[in-house]
Amino acid sequence: MEKLKGDERRELILRKLKENGRPIKGADLAKACGVSRQVIVGDITLLKAHGESIMATSSGYIHLGSEAPERKSGFSRKIACTHTPDQTEDELNLIVDAGASVRDVTVEHPVYGELTAAIMVNNRHDVGQFISRVNETGSPFLLELTGGPHLHTITADSEEILDRAEQALREHGFLTDEA
After folding, report:
1. Are 35 and 2 in contact (CB under 8 A)?
2. How far apart are the C-alpha atoms of 23 and 64, rounded to whole Å?
3. CA–centroid distance for 16 within its chain
4. Where are the alpha helices (DSSP H) in the chain?
5. Contact criterion met (CB below 8 Å) for 138 and 132
6. Is residue 116 helix, strand or coil?
7. Are 31 and 12 a contacting pair, CB within 8 Å?
8. What does DSSP assign to residue 159?
9. What does 53-100 look like in DSSP terms, one character per residue?
10. CB 172, CB 79: distance < 8 Å
């Protein structure tokens, strides 16, 4: 593909993100635009600086317009969890199996304060992709910074689904009163 010029490239990126409604990997955007992934990172930064609501997630970039998946869920809740890194997949699967989505994870770092990262997992497939990405990159989970305690923002179409997710986590010993 022919390399696109800056404004034209950012317009294409924005259109793809808005039309897709799901995360798109930076490498896929780079291929579509005929540039490197680093150029896409810079373009995303410029788009954000111009007021575009774009979020980087473990699954790729997503535009947070009114049609974005995380906006479809009308209810959200912060939950405090603790577990070991090797229990992360079980924790996330319990939440999505209950019908909820995991928007993000937050930890309290002693130097940097509150650190939040988007996860954006809605089903077992998303959980598997997230875990694979962590394993492929050798990246630590944020909970490793705190020895386990962390917060999640979970979303769902009803309070009952959020309650069901919390109950599943409680039954498996993942909920905590301290984060």
Report:
1. no
2. 10
3. 18
4. 6-20, 26-33, 37-49, 69-72, 88-97, 124-137, 159-171
5. no
6. strand
7. no
8. H
9. -EEEETTEEEE-STTSHHHH--EEEEEEE---GGGHHHHHHHHHHTT-
10. no
Both tokens of 11, joined, read 């317009």
Contacts of 57 (CB under 8 A, 6+ apart): 23, 118, 119, 120
Question: What phi, psi does 83 have (nearest 5°)?
Answer: -175, 175
**Whether the Cβ atoms of residue 85 and residue 96 lie closer than 8 Å to each other:** no
pLDDT of amino acid 179: 40
Question: Residue 177 has what pLDDT?
Answer: 66
Predicted confidence pLDDT, tens digits, the chain (179 residues): 567 788 899 999 999 999 987 889 999 999 999 999 889 988 988 888 788 888 887 778 888 874 444 444 589 999 999 999 999 999 999 999 999 999 999 998 888 888 999 898 999 999 999 999 899 999 999 999 988 999 999 999 999 999 999 999 999 999 986 44
**What is the pTM (predicted TM-score) of this model?**
0.71
What is the maximal distance between C-alpha atoms in the chain? 55
Lookup: tokens for 75: 């209810």
The Cα–Cα gap between 93 and 99 comes to: 10
